[in-house]
Amino acid sequence: MALETKKIRNVVLLGHSGSGKTTFAETMLFEAGNINRRGIVEEGSTVSDFTNIEKERGNSIFSTLMHANWRGNKINIIDTPGLDDFVGEVISSLKVADTALMIINGKSGVEVGTELVWEYVDQFHAPAMFVVNQMDHEKADFETSLDQIKQRFGNKVMPVQYPLNAGTGFNTIVDALRLTMYVFPEGGGKPEKKDIPDSEIERAQEMHNALVEAAAENDEALMERFFDEGSLTEEELAQGLTIALANQEIFPVFCASSTENMGSGRIMGFLNDIAPSPADRPPAKLADGGTLDCDADADPNLFIYKTMSEPRIGIVSYFKLYSGSLSHGDELYNERTSTAERFNQIFISNGKSRETVDKLVAGDIGVTVKLKNSHTNDTLGHKGKVQQIDPIHFPSPRIRTAVVPPSKADLEKLVKALHTIQEEDPTLIVENSQELKQTILHGQGQLHLDLIKYRLLKTNGIEMEFTRPKISYRETITRMANDSYRHKKQSGGAGQFGEVHMRIEPYHEGMAPPSDLTVRNEDVTELPWGGKLVFLWCIVGGSIDSKYSNAIKKGVMQKMQEGPLTGSPCLDIRVCIYDGKMHPVDSNDMAFQLAGTMVFKNAFGKAAPQLLEPIHEVEILCSDDVMGDVMSDLQSRRAMIMGMAADGHYQKITAKVPLAEMYKYSSTLRSITQGKAKFTRAFSEYQAVTPDLQKQLIDEYQAELQEA
Ligand SMILES: Nc1nc2c(ncn2[C@@H]2O[C@H](COP(=O)(O)OP(=O)(O)OP(=O)(O)O)[C@@H](O)[C@H]2O)c(=O)[nH]1
Ligand SMILES: [Mg+2]
Question: Are 124 and 95 in contact (CB under 8 A)?
């Protein structure tokens, strides 16, 4: 018998690295009786963090699917990495979760990582709860953490609990919702329920009333009862809180110690009783703008949110069933790849251990193996009836590095292995740049790329060396110039002849046509590398037949592709062909193409050429105390500071920085701020390089040409 949708809870654990997510997941599984011994992250014995690489590092790197059975319900738990480099795992997990459990490190409060994941919680409109963890730590400070959570995430943040004796020896939690005090035995587990002492009753009652009011607020009938009776029954309260939580009207706050196993049972009880089931969430968004109800009786729509390759097994696919049901042996169709996929094995999983099940229903999350041709973001269903779920939108890359080309034999292996990783990890982009003649990896941070390198070595035996990636410069001109070129070859047989007179000018949007020339034809090309070429045919009196204009333009484009200064593409240039000569016998396309290339090159040299470099807009979020260090580092990178503003109790700095100065920025930022800063970047524009740098780059290119 498959579980009903109503009995499913999908919970994702989120938070800054080290807040205790993996340990908390372990405690949840233990409390539910799904494991009988609690593992320890440092010992590599936890259910989550089961891959070798995570065990070695002591951090989560991948999201891990687990589940706990709780009073006849099933709580799917997805643990995520807190390290910003692996934010792709957070986003894909949030996509399929129905409630976010934000784990706060009780000794440091709201951290940069908390802020960042909250952005995604907000984007997904996910119901969210906070757990202030590590209450047993000598430096634990619940009140400060709570203040920060309120300050940062607004007045919908409401404590359900508070600790009576946070710090070493912590064992007591006052629960304002149940108006009960929990006292835990040594080693944690099941607490003893006691009356709240007189000294605390006022605070607890006040918190309780605030919760009751919040519960009543979203339901007219409840509100009425609340006014008439002055209170709500336990059932009414639960009903009101469910609505409030599901609609992001309340963000309840709990406290816990995951190493001491205190508090997780109550939180699971709350998830069980109050948190929304997949059917209580708004219908899922579809790629075509429509929506899909979570209805177990409808046609199946199964969405793959993650794939991972495992040794000896191959591709393991993690999916959520958004509608319908899936039984052992069912065949579903992938329209994107026109592949029928048979589900011979359906699993539920707890980290690396998997258990087969016969059937899953809408809302549940499961695992399968050996799909033929289906990947992350694919939806599978009945042929002709697939309703494509809105895909996961992964963040754009923040850093890049080039790969030192390995030997020919290794290159093939490398490309294949990178392709496999890219399939599992959509935040990695592998680019074979024709322009730079380099293979470039784009990722979320240095750690992200370093771990890919490490994985290749450990699992594929491939050594991959990183090197500084080249920069995509651009070339342009800054003033007008005229020139002419005659291509003539008459050595026996048919000769070649073409003469072209050309004016070139810096192009800008809306510029006036040349006042001294008659424009016969205007041809505007949007260049694939950005910017434009405007090609004006201004021949009067037929000195060149207009049938040669294409050949001349082709010649110009050829040089624009590999510019005269450093071989970089040229942009934003207007070319006027205003005179020339042709020969009745020897002129042909080839001759005019060559003349076009040469006249462009020469005129370009006379037009005060300028090398341009890509500038990125960088946004940095950091805490106050490291702001000075971040700023002075930026200044050493030729950055132009665009703005600085307080963002909660963080500072947000925006700056324009040349891409050439961003190499290894993620690791520098991490080390100068001890991890208290995060950044994003995006291409902004091209800007002129300094004369010194221009000279240096031209010299380097000339030297390269000499060598070649
Ligand atoms: N004292 C104390 N230590 C804790 C508690 N929870 C976790 N820790 C410790 O904090 C460290 C980090 O815990 P993890 O569970 O790996 O943290 P995480 O949030 O999963 O970290 P990432 O996977 O890097 O995001 C470990 O050494 C834990 O033992 C707690 O409640 N009390
Ligand atoms: Mg972890």
Answer: yes
Please state the separation of Cα 524 from the chain's center in Å: 36
Beta bridge partners of 174: 162, 181
| Domain spans in the chain, listed from the N-terminal domain onward | 7-191+250-281, 285-381, 399-467, 475-607, 611-693
Q: Is residue 387 within 8 Å of 290, Cβ to Cβ? A: yes
Q: State how far the Cα of 584 lies from the Cα of 577, in Å rounded to an integer.
A: 20
C-alpha distances (whole Å) from 37 to each of 28, 45, 355 are: 12, 10, 19
Q: How many angstroms separate the CA atoms of 392 and 377, rounded?
A: 6
Q: Which amino acid would we find at residue 692?
A: D
Distance of alpha carbon 63 from its chain centroid, rounded?
A: 14
- The answer to whether the CB of 264 is under 6 A from ligand 1 is no
What is the C-alpha separation between 86 and 96, in angstroms, rounded? 17
Cα 361 to Cα 356: distance, rounded to the nearest angstrom: 14
Q: From the alpha carbon of 137, which atom of ligand 1 is closest? A: 1
The per-residue pLDDT for 151 is 92
> Pairing relation of β-strands 331-334 and 339-342?
antiparallel
∠ at Cα 76 (193, 152), nearest 5°?
A: 70
User: What CATH class does 611-693 carry?
Assistant: alpha beta
- CATH number attached to the domain at 399-467: 3.30.70.870
Note the ligand closest to the C-alpha atom of 90.
1
Second-level CATH architecture of 7-191+250-281: 3-Layer(aba) Sandwich (3.40)
Query: Residues 110, 120: contact at Cβ < 8 Å?
Result: no
Q: Which candidate, 707, 472, 702, places its Cα nearest to that of 568?
A: 472
Under CATH, what is the fold of the domain 285-381?
Answer: Elongation Factor Tu (Ef-tu); domain 3 (2.40.30)
Query: Same CATH topology for 399-467 and 611-693?
Result: yes
SS3 5: helix
Q: Encoding tokens for residue 302?
A: 């199964």
CA distance 414 to 149: 46
Predicted pLDDT of residue 626: 92
CA-based nearest residue to 571, from 542, 614, 514: 614
Q: Of 691, 434, 692, whose CA–CA distance to 569 is shortest?
A: 434
Probe target for ligand 1 pocket from 259, 262, 264, with the most ligand atoms within 8 Å of CB: 259
CA 331–ligand 2 middle distance (angstroms): 35
* Residue 417 token pair: 């292995």
Tell me, rounded to whole angstroms, the distance of Cα 118 from its chain centroid. Answer: 14
- CA 525 vs. chain centroid, Å, equals 33
Tell me the three state secondary structure of residue 483.
strand
Contacts of 453 (CB under 8 A, 6+ apart): 464, 466
Ion ligand 2 residue ranges (Cβ < 5 Å): 21-22, 60
Averaged pLDDT in 10-residue chunks for the chain of 708 residues: 87 97 97 94 93 91 96 96 94 98 96 90 96 98 97 94 96 96 94 96 95 88 83 86 93 97 96 95 96 97 94 92 97 97 96 95 97 96 97 92 85 88 92 88 92 89 90 96 93 84 96 95 95 96 94 97 94 97 92 97 97 96 91 95 86 95 90 87 94 94 87
CATH of 475-607, one of 3.40.470.10, 3.40.50.150, 3.40.50.10540, 3.30.230.10: 3.30.230.10
Tell me, in angstroms, the distance from the centre of ligand 1 to residue 173's CA. 20
H/E element, 134: none
Cα diameter, the chain: 114
| Cβ count within 10 A of residue 34 | 18
